[in-house]
Amino acid sequence: MFQFLLKRFGVLIPTFLGVTILTFVFVHLIPGDPVLIMAGERGLSPERHAELMAQLGLDKPLYQQYFNYLIGIFHGDLGVSFKSQIPVWEEFVPRFKATFELGMSAMVFAVFFGIPIGVLAAVKRGSIFDHTAISLSLTGYSMPIFWWGMMLVMLVSVHLNLTPVSGRVSDMLFLDDSNPLTGFMLIDTLFWGEEGDFIDAVQHLILPSIVLGTIPLAVIVRMTRSAMLEVLNEDYIRTARAKGVSRWRIIMVHALRNAMIPVVTIIGLQVGSMLAGAILTETVFSWPGIGRWLIDSLQRRDYPVVQSGVLIVATLIILVNLVIDMLYGIINPRIRHKK
Amino acid sequence: MALLEVKELAVQFGEFKAVDRISYQVEQGQVVGIVGESGSGKSVSSLAIMGLIDFPGKVTANALHFDGHDLKTISEKARRRIVGADVAMIFQDPMTSLNPCFTVGYQIMEAIKIHHGGSKKQRRERAIKLLNCVGIPDPANRLNVYPHQLSGGMSQRVMIAIAIACNPKLLIADEPTTALDVTIQGQIIELLLDLQKKDNMALVLITHDLALVAEAAHKIIVMYAGQIVEIGDAEVIFKSPLHPYTQALLNSLPEFTQDKQRLASLSGVVPGKYDRPHGCLLNPRCPYADKQCKTVEPILHARSENRQVKCHYPLSPEGNPSYE
Ligand SMILES: Nc1ncnc2c1ncn2[C@@H]1O[C@H](COP(=O)(O)OP(=O)(O)OP(=O)(O)O)[C@@H](O)[C@H]1O
Ligand SMILES: [Mg+2]
């Protein structure tokens, strides 16, 4: 297990470097001048322009800019936002918490419903339930997030008036800063909010979680179903039946444990694509997370924010995959014992 | 009364009769060998007895009695109390028959837990004893091992330990050595026979290798294309087979052809779904088949006590067909 981890961390460093190069190059390839954008309609004199470019370090050759950036990173300095003059890291953390809260709750939604539906569809193969599950998951998978979010808001929030339209909490909600706030609304409102604040936060979370969780849900349903079908045909299932193990136990213990191996992998892979989904979801629901933050910064050509933001996100995805790999080892003894 | 009584057992997959009206009995403590080529329905018939044939497979029988239970009408719950406890089964490929996600100990103790319960400590002790019994060295440590860490022979020993965990009255071994090295094969058969003698357990040994059951079995059942073609005591069958198919199986064994001239083994394969012939199912491959064999299906009939054959012209002791 230790060697396994060591190897994984070894891969981390080149990947990390690759990501810095890619984001740097891509950000600078996008046409547009951050100084001009900041100046806005009024424009500015060429002298003032050059002065500002020098101030931001944009007058140097690209390779030098890259190395300065890299050196900064290794000193733990991710840069300062052009716009707000706040260090990128400080801007990142609260927004990340918002995205994390949304992503976790979307994933919990997807796993909580996806695995039982997938198992049931496999066990009742060919039934109406199975067919419905398959076609719904196909629909869910191909649903454009933006449209799906809008439709849900119109139906549930506007028409039925069941949930709030946007944001993380109601405008009226007030949390006292003197408390050790975590930045996670569910936790903060639960411990330090007034009565009803927690419910308010949950209500705000429901629709975005469903929207963001729809694709992972569809993927998990299909993966669980096919993995279960495959596993249920294995010889060791026949052995368990020959031992007199009950049907329920065979499904929940003998089959599910084996079927979880590919499902966990798929869940890990979904984390990456969920970040893309988060950008759209956050836009629809005005969710103050990194998705919206990155889009806004990109439009302003706020190079440090985009570069470092993407870098942090990429690192997170790598770390998540590492955790998934470890989980995989826990579920699957064959991986664990491989030297 | 016999421990296991099977009457007119049939298993169908759609139109295809994988097992076609077979009847036989197994007495307590008896070793019965079921032989036949691949595809002759040996596994399917045993799985049917265990209640392991799934939809769309359809099992019918006139009688299916085990140890006083009517397996035909028994509830699913009552069947599970018997299966794995009083009647157990081991399979052809031990490497895939153990669950890769659970330790050997877990899988043995699960069987004990289901049928006998007891405390965790008792189950553990019993599992160690069982591993010892099937000849696995250092049993206490082996409990914590995962199946992929075992060789094929060791896996089959573990499978046997699971099967005998609840002291079954009948153990069905479905080609228990086919997937193993030749050197290991003998050891596993020996182990099975030891266990059989020790507890006076009945043992059904399924194989396509007649030599394997030659010495061990009391009774031999020869199957072909889902049907029983011959039943008889082991010594008698080996000395003078009545059915041309049995004769061909024997002739393919070097041990049995020393003093007789060696006949060419049967050409062709067991008929499958679409090529079932009329009359006797063996007729396209039988060197002695005549017109009657191609039109009329022979019935399995008794020739003497414990001796049945399904052939129009059973062979004489000299090995020639008895045309009238
Ligand atoms: N689930 C199933 N659906 C359809 N046909 C099946 C099924 N299981 C078995 N069969 C068919 O039933 C026939 C008998 O199979 P069976 O496994 O009993 O043969 P066998 O005598 O055990 O052969 P082997 O020596 O290869 O194990 C074969 O033709 C097989 O294709
Ligand atoms: Mg078989």
Automatic annotation (TrEMBL), chain A:
<keyword id="KW-0813">Transport</keyword>
<keyword id="KW-1003">Cell membrane</keyword>
<dbReference type="InterPro" id="IPR045621">
    <property type="entry name" value="BPD_transp_1_N"/>
</dbReference>
<feature type="transmembrane region" description="Helical">
    <location>
        <begin position="201"/>
        <end position="221"/>
    </location>
</feature>
<feature type="transmembrane region" description="Helical">
    <location>
        <begin position="259"/>
        <end position="285"/>
    </location>
</feature>
<keyword id="KW-1133">Transmembrane helix</keyword>
<feature type="transmembrane region" description="Helical">
    <location>
        <begin position="305"/>
        <end position="331"/>
    </location>
</feature>
<feature type="transmembrane region" description="Helical">
    <location>
        <begin position="102"/>
        <end position="123"/>
    </location>
</feature>
<keyword id="KW-0812">Transmembrane</keyword>
<keyword id="KW-0472">Membrane</keyword>
<comment type="similarity">
    <text>Belongs to the binding-protein-dependent transport system permease family. OppBC subfamily.</text>
</comment>
<feature type="domain" description="ABC transmembrane type-1">
    <location>
        <begin position="96"/>
        <end position="328"/>
    </location>
</feature>
<protein>
    <submittedName>
        <fullName>Dipeptide ABC transporter permease DppB</fullName>
    </submittedName>
</protein>
<dbReference type="Pfam" id="PF00528">
    <property type="entry name" value="BPD_transp_1"/>
</dbReference>
<dbReference type="InterPro" id="IPR000515">
    <property type="entry name" value="MetI-like"/>
</dbReference>
<feature type="transmembrane region" description="Helical">
    <location>
        <begin position="144"/>
        <end position="162"/>
    </location>
</feature>
<dbReference type="InterPro" id="IPR035906">
    <property type="entry name" value="MetI-like_sf"/>
</dbReference>
<feature type="transmembrane region" description="Helical">
    <location>
        <begin position="9"/>
        <end position="30"/>
    </location>
</feature>
<dbReference type="Pfam" id="PF19300">
    <property type="entry name" value="BPD_transp_1_N"/>
</dbReference>
From TrEMBL, chain B:
<dbReference type="Pfam" id="PF00005">
    <property type="entry name" value="ABC_tran"/>
</dbReference>
<dbReference type="InterPro" id="IPR003439">
    <property type="entry name" value="ABC_transporter-like_ATP-bd"/>
</dbReference>
<keyword id="KW-0813">Transport</keyword>
<feature type="domain" description="ABC transporter">
    <location>
        <begin position="4"/>
        <end position="250"/>
    </location>
</feature>
<dbReference type="Pfam" id="PF08352">
    <property type="entry name" value="oligo_HPY"/>
</dbReference>
<dbReference type="InterPro" id="IPR027417">
    <property type="entry name" value="P-loop_NTPase"/>
</dbReference>
<keyword id="KW-0472">Membrane</keyword>
<keyword id="KW-1003">Cell membrane</keyword>
<dbReference type="InterPro" id="IPR050388">
    <property type="entry name" value="ABC_Ni/Peptide_Import"/>
</dbReference>
<dbReference type="InterPro" id="IPR017871">
    <property type="entry name" value="ABC_transporter-like_CS"/>
</dbReference>
<keyword id="KW-0547">Nucleotide-binding</keyword>
<dbReference type="InterPro" id="IPR003593">
    <property type="entry name" value="AAA+_ATPase"/>
</dbReference>
<comment type="similarity">
    <text>Belongs to the ABC transporter superfamily.</text>
</comment>
<dbReference type="InterPro" id="IPR013563">
    <property type="entry name" value="Oligopep_ABC_C"/>
</dbReference>
<dbReference type="GO" id="GO:0005524">
    <property type="term" value="F:ATP binding"/>
</dbReference>
<protein>
    <recommendedName>
        <fullName>ABC-type dipeptide transporter</fullName>
        <ecNumber>7.4.2.9</ecNumber>
    </recommendedName>
</protein>
<keyword id="KW-0067">ATP-binding</keyword>
